[in-house]
Specification:
The protein contains eight helices and twelve strands. The chain has helices at about 40-55, 75-80, 85-105, 120-130, 160-170, 210-220, 235-250, 280-290, and strands spanning about 5, 10-15, 25-30, 60-65, 135-140, 140-145, 185-190, 205, 225-230, 255-260, 265, 270. The longest helix has 19 residues, at about 40-55. The chain starts with a strand and ends with a helix.
Length: about 290
């Protein structure tokens, strides 16, 4: 019996046929390490743990990659609030992540790359995107030019006209904005005082959120691989922008099957700190499995 999966890209169930017979490359977006995990994380990583275990049970040789985002606005903010270094903070919460996954019985991934350990891969990918005419430099920032990708929004199914109308209403989008289009997104952010920064051909700075996963998935799984997973909240903008970046480098769709788990709902509402229905993994385990 074959395996069928629901592909977010085609919005249909499809027969699963890996690119290389008998082998599966799978990349799942990992956590941004500035706090302990919540039950939304639990849903995602339990779901993809089951998937990778099932594939192995069915006889496939699986390479499972799950990253850690260890440089980010939230990390920098939490580091400043706690008066600890960014590396100290991220090392701590990577350790806490592993503890949470162990409590859930979720296996470690085969490869667990950290963004800060792959800066040269990220810089090289950004340079390729610029060279191929899909990005531009503005005051030390580098932006992806969404108009250069005819397939943009193909994964999420959104309409560009609707998105542009919404973006034009946001505070901060004005004639002074350096972006050519309101939805152009940062590949590289120019350094700000007090923030961690790395040298680049465009000046010191740090990567935008989306480029990290394109660079690390290519490094460990190649320019085209089988499964890319994550929560439904990542379809737009994160995974949509990954598609655009990776296509700019190779001219190909870099993922064969997009898989997304649904949202966690508490009392019929999507989990949210603002609604007061937000729970960490440890809170739930302590309550139901004391």
């Amino acid at each position: 019996m074959g395996i069928r999966v629901f592909n977010t890209m085609t919005r249909a169930k499809e027969e699963f046929v890996p690119r290389v017979p008998g082998k599966v490359g799978m990349y799942v977006c990992g956590v941004t390490v500035y706090d302990v995990c919540h039950i939304g994380h639990a849903r995602a990583y339990v779901a993809f743990d089951v998937i990778q275990r099932w594939l192995r049970y069915r006889g496939f040789e699986v390479t499972y990659v799950r990253n850690f985002t260890d440089v980010d606005d939230k990390i920098i903010k939490r580091s400043n609030e706690a008066c600890v270094g960014v590396n100290e903070l991220t090392d701590c919460f990577i350790g806490e992540f592993h503890k949470d996954m162990e409590l859930l019985g979720v296996a470690a991934a085969d490869v667990e790359p950290r963004v800060t350990a792959h800066m040269q891969d990220i810089l090289a990918m950004i340079a390729r995107i610029i060279e191929r005419g899909h990005a531009y430099v503005a005051d030390g920032d580098v932006y992806y030019d969404i108009a250069s990708f005819p397939g943009y929004l193909g994964l999420s199914g959104r309409k560009l006209d609707d998105m542009q109308a919404g973006a034009s209403d946001r505070v901060g989008v004005s004639e002074a904005d350096p972006k050519r289009h309101p939805l152009d997104f940062a590949l590289w952010k120019a350094a700000k005082p007090g923030e961690p920064a790395w040298e680049s051909p465009w000046g010191p700075g740090r990567p935008g959120w989306h480029i990290e996963c394109s660079a690390m998935s290519e490094k460990y799984l190649g320019t085209v691989f089988d499964i890319h997973g994550g929560g439904a909240d990542l379809v737009f903008p994160h995974h949509e922008n990954e598609r655009a970046q990776s296509w700019a480098c190779s001219g190909e769709e870099f993922v064969r099957y997009w898989m997304h788990n649904g949202f966690v709902k508490v009392d019929g509402e999507k989990m949210s700190k603002s609604l007061g229905n937000f729970f960490t993994i440890r809170e739930v385990l302590a309550r139901f499995f004391p």
